[in-house]
């Protein structure tokens, strides 16, 4: 490399980029990747370099674990977790990828021995509607799919939905970042829950908008406390920050809490009074553990059930995704958002910005279609689909309960059981000596805890500081996706007890 | 809707959004969509509304054409154009979507009657490398695929490539917007060709960066004129605008021009001297009509062939895509960029920003893999692949030549033949009276021309003003993708002659 100063360096690039933080895939994930590679290629530890694979340093001894347990990311289908994709989905998409399978006379007969007839029929219908999955679609997404999304919303909520106000996206993240980047001016305030999914702080940092944190109440099962929210609003106003938007994640990530109808009404009332746009991240809406006790209500439904002056004016954008739920199709990148009460002039801007990115991935659009219209009862594919989705629901729920129960048995940990989503966010009562040690290492105490946990057990969990937490409290986020829950618990328990012992007063 | 002022209106949203323009999918595309819907559902013209489909007004008479000819977007596989997807691609992806096809003993045998054995083998290998296509991958994309991209680049250029500097993306657009948003500070200057693909002006407007236009030389086959480029640089410096980046589209969109090696060396020299980052949009690199006369050279190759002080310091990002070339898989959203000579500290920021968007669509990543490593000569799938890709190359070339030839026969049109890409950008000698009429209608003259063309013939072409053009000149961009080239030419000729007659002096 020459000694000429590069045109791009940390002083010359977009300074807002430097303020972006995103813990879920940071240092810890990089280290876990290295361990995974090392376990797959044991010769790597000798430092035998290839050009292509980053190697650990030569000092590394054999690892004290056999595999990396990826409890850091809500990625159900990844290796090691292996949540089985829904057969119905994959059958239909495989046909759409290679339509000759149902078009060519010499293939049709063979295919009918493999694929159920309702799958073949549905693939044909989708093919007529979409055409080739290799073509750009409308920038909003395929109209026929948006119509079925509208129908899904109508049936879920009991209120009409307009396909022209529904945009298909490359996952919920793409939708969130697009809408926030339109809605927020530099310096605008955006209320976000703490703890939160770090996409929000990352996006706000990039937009030079102000995150206005409102703390969720850990002592009350991570519920929203309306007084706290009001305080955050008045605080912002006192500081001259316009409160433009309010983000709510329901069911919560990382908390797993589901909002009550009453809490939602209060929030909407506040948005009405203060002229705040409501951003409802509802990607975990089907991941509800006990719907009879704590069902999911969409913000659209609650909004539309309120008096007309409110229901026809509060601006709401609701986000959904195929990455979570029972499909877990993260890699396909599919989702949608519905805009409610957004003015036409702003909707035109939303359309323009969507058109610059051409169109969402067609495979993700098909995923959205399959999510909003699963096989109907009585159809050939229904029983298998039901069996597969029930298993996924039950697994998540059982693991989540089991893990929470065990966390609460350990000294120095307390954990609110989750009501939904796919995470737990246990609190670590961090010993003083551990906090001092972390300081010496130049790390947040919970980051040190998570890194040590990974080094000792191969368990990959994200430190609470990546999501935000009350100052002086420490957490980690773990997913409830690991099939070997007991192995996870055993490894975790051993590490935690040793950690507490090591740093005890 | 209540009378309460909406929180989101044109005064309160992000003001930079208002400055974004994107002609390719603007008014013209919306009108063409309506015509397509009207032709598919003739009852629409009576104004019988459905909630879901926008209707034309009641006055609309039967349309003077039978179908809409979509010559506005480089979308080879769309309905009406129907470029056939490559069989090899679709076979492999269909297997990866439903791996039971090659895993389950009861399906394997049937499948072996449909799929060539090399396809099945490759799908198995990819499955081992990737796992489920429904899982998030590494934020940079699957390592095994990035390694094959590096190999492709090495074989193309004769210089090494590092998989860690290669990022898979959701198409080239996503990569361009991500890199520009990192590289540019507010107020930074970015040299862009005029005419250009409007993604660049749209992205720069959003970033509040300054587009620094350099005009391509229409009288010299749309070549880059170095003096013009130098003038744009010194002009910017005189105005106190830091010249941070230079965008080059090669082969050109919308011009179809391919750069000579000498022009490229001059550009690189300039970047070296001025400390400018080079952004090479090389998405049409395989769409070359006459490689013996005007071959494609990558900027990476030319850069690496230059003296060491230059080759090891000029910062280059090169973009590629599966949407163009012979694959034309736009809807899959796949591409990559390679970063050359970018400092490690900046590469860390690139990685961080990629991780916020989680990962590119896996289906698009697989597309990149198939693009960079097609079936090898002698393999079972090779002959069909060769036949299909040859046909696509030949069709594009023949149509492009034929269309250019015909344009040049018409009065008041001149058209540089294209050397590559998939567009033509003919110049319309706009009659004064047409310019006056356009003024009355509040439109750019070429926008009026394109809208009238659509109304009269169903041919959808984008006005040159969407791409930029020398003041006082008027163009349209048409793709060379329409199978009914002669029908296109006939309809166009009739409209154009009538237009010229109508507005003659």
From TrEMBL, chains A, B:
GO MF assignments: pyridoxal phosphate binding; transaminase activity
Keyword annotations of the record: Aminotransferase, Pyridoxal phosphate, Transferase
Domain of life, source organism: Eukaryota
Alphabetical list of InterPro entries matching this protein: ALAT1/2-like, Aminotransferase_I/II_large, PyrdxlP-dep_Trfase, PyrdxlP-dep_Trfase_major, PyrdxlP-dep_Trfase_small
Cofactor(s) the protein needs: pyridoxal 5'-phosphate
Keyword Transferase applies: yes
Domain Aminotransferase class I/classII large as annotated: residue spans: 117-480
SUPFAM superfamilies linked: PLP-dependent transferases
Quaternary structure annotation from Swiss-Prot or TrEMBL: Homodimer.
Family membership noted in the UniProt record: Belongs to the class-I pyridoxal-phosphate-dependent aminotransferase family. Alanine aminotransferase subfamily.
Name used for this protein in its record: Glutamate pyruvate transaminase
Organism: Kwoniella pini CBS 10737
Lineage: Eukaryota, Fungi, Dikarya, Basidiomycota, Agaricomycotina
